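Table 4 source record.
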Amino acid sequence: MLRQISVAFLVIGCTTLSILASGQTAASWKMKFSPLQTRWAKEVSPANTLPEYPRPQMVRPNWENLNGMWQYTITAAGEQTPPSSYNGEILVPFPLESALSGVQKTLLPDQRLWYKKTFNKPTTKGKDKVLLHFGAVDFNATVYLNGKKIGTHTGGYTGFQFDITDQLKDKDNELVVAVLDPTDQGDNPHGKQVLQPRNILYTGSSGIWQTVWLETVPAVYIDGLKMTPQVDQQQLDLRVNTAGNINGYTVEAVAVSNGSVIGTVKGKPNTNLQLPVPSAHLWSPNDPFLYNLTVKLLYNNKVVDTVGSYFGMRKIEIKKDENGQERIFLNGKYTYNLGVLDQGFWPDGLYTAPTDAALKFDILAIKSMGFNTIRKHVKVEPARWYYHCDHEGILVWQDMVTCPNNSADARKNFEQENIATVEQCYNYPSIVCWVLFNEGWARYDQQRLTEAMKHMDPSRIINGHTGENYDRESPKDPNEKWKSSDLTDIHDYPGPGISPALPGKARVLGEWGGVQVKTPNHQWNEADGWGYISIPAANFARKYAFMNKHLKIYEEEGLSGSIYTEPFDVETEENGLISYDREVIKIPVTQLRQIHGAFVPPTSDVAAAFIVKDIDTTNPDNQYATLLDAYNKGKKDAPFLQQLAQMALRVNDKPNAIKISNDYIGQLKAPFTNSQLAFINKFTTSSHDKGFSLLMANREQINKALGQRQADIKLMSIIYGEEIKPYTQDAAATPDWSKIETKTKQYGAPGEEIFLRAKTIHFLNQKDWNNFAATADQYVGKCAAFITPNELNTYAWTVFENLSDPTHLSNAANWCQHALKAGDNPAYIDTYANVLYKAGKKDDAIANEEKAVQLAPSGDKKTYQDILDKMKKGEKTWK
């Protein structure tokens, strides 16, 4: 019945489709190149861009989809006036950086992205209002209509709306949206998005990335619903939030099951109501039963507004089983949460799935493989993703999007986003657990925030800290590690493992697995693909079954849930059970279902839409001799050379790997793709390789594309090995540094940097303290931005312990200041205080040491306090 009601509303709503902006044509859009694309990408077009009703739990008939072609331009971030002209077209709602946007550009922190679209005023009657909705815009959005600023929104993962009635014209309304998004360079929660993708961090998604739409409502209208299933009380707690003057208004809610009314309630808007649900048909992964709900707003008993919705009745809690072990119980029954860590990325759309069918496919795939749980990892999905979880039946652990750093603004944004996330996702029965902190990433006030989340939503489990064992600043007392949380939770790669048993808490394994299995021809970037461990495809099924047998032992000992990393590969992270393009499964689905059946029987049949092919378990490297022979006989096309070079490296034929890779690199021409840049970086091992000159000529591009200064590091490694190491590998050597400097100067900045670094470390190792201090000051003066805070701290502490010269101490204090730019680390503040103290700046030293004591973990406070006491007494703090 739910499907029938939803479809009825949606058919009415789709009578008005998106309108192309003036001067824009669907024919101008073209998907950009992507190393991989999913089968759904070919279904994307400007005339049919995510046309489904975007808010399935509050459906109205009168709406208009604004997805499709918009104009865009990029200006300096300081430009706050809408531009007079636009440079191109973009397909909304695909992120700027995605292939499906038709743009595929990176938005930098010092830039502002502008969108423009024109549309006609929707049909209205009387005092009707028109609302403009945004599903999500990352990160800061300012919205203008017909030249007037109508509002702003901060937060990249939650929806917002504006009443635009008074600003509308009959025709050619000009909508402009300005976006700032520093990605990982600001105080904004950004999840796994970074400007320089690498390892567990992926390509950013800036700008509009969920549906934009218009909705026509009456002057007083239903603005939101809050639904809490109360299974024991046989009722649904319901609040109908209403916008406008509610004097004289009432609300009525009717719940329907299989065509029959099972409960009704009437009352005032904006009050807590109780809708009877007698003998409730409970929702679970095995039986995802949903009740239909119709909510009406009445004025003098006349219906003025109606929304269609649904709800599920289920109860999640921590209880003791028959053996006295704390477990996760669903609807009064122990239910093992067998889950996967779902990142929610797509090779063609990044944060945005190509189609609704693609969005649904991921859920069907995970269920088909025999899992009953998804941990949605540091991302909040569009409403339709949760609708599919509700409808198909899968438990969801919903992460908060990580706090980005320890600044006050970052914490403010994090807490605001958490509140908005819980409010926005509150009504989905599939969500059974909120996850607050992950692995100590910018963790703070854990107990306070866990309790605040429990107060916001006492109906769900709260996981205050998943992967606590990865938190270096974690409390020593086990009872403090998960304070106020409903779970104890560790991560173990590859694992499995089990978290500690603590009273009142269930034990879960929040992440484990991470086994890389390569899928040739289905990889984002073969040169950089990685996993926590790597095994051949032929061995994976056996390995996975073996790991799960161990997991079963832990389950029998008290483990209540486990989250495997992960269902799908993501960019270079090749830990998925399925390839990133959703085409290849690495263990046949029947085997996976059998393995997982030891924990929970499959909760559904394999979905008809779950179409994948089994991985080829034959070792492609067995063909190496044949392929090498073809190469020696003259086969030299680029794709062949690229794959053969990788194969030569895998079979440890290094001479041929160098020869073949040089042949391949010799064919490359700028502009280079990220995959080609990664190949060049990987296979360049000496200054004689063809890639060396390309690395030198394209340093900045490669550093930007691959992240972590990979080109500079590779160049410095080669320069060091060829020009410096031969003269310094003997610990007692006395190198001719002038001669070495002359040789390294020919390589420019990388040569200068590695020269100064090598010279600094050589004097440090030789304990030649004066020369060390002088050289280190040269090194820091030119390369401070590239030296880790820990290394800077080590240099400063070395000077403090071994030298008394005022100049050296003053320089060391400056190095400390560079280290402290990374944040208020108490160990670095302590070093700074000691250097200042030895330099005779007692007052400044005491002030900083007091700060170190205040910020120090409990285990270090006494050490710092002893130093502070010595400073105040005027005693030496050095040996």
